[in-house]
Amino acid sequence: MDTATDAQNYIALLEVPEEKVAVLPGASADLTSVTFCIREEDHTLGNSLRWAIMQNPQVDFCGYSIPHPSEAKMNIRIQTTDQTNAVDAMDKGIDDLKSVCQLMKARLQQRLGQGDYARTS
Amino acid sequence: MIAEVPTMAIDMVLFNENTSVLADEFFAHRLGLVPLVSTSVDQFKYSRDCTCGEYCKECSVEFTLHVKCTEPGTRVVHSSELISSNKDVVPVVDDNGRGVILLKLSKGQEINVHCVAKKGVAKEHAKWSPCAAVGFEYDPHNNLKHLDYWFEKGIKEEWPLSKNAEEETENDPSAPFDYNAEPTTFYFNVETIGSLDPQAVVIKATRVLQEKLGALQMALEEDQHPDTNANMDEADPWV
Question: Could you tell me which residue ranges the DNA-directed RNA polymerase RBP11-like dimerisation domain spans (chain A) (predicted)?
Answer without folding.
Answer: 34-105
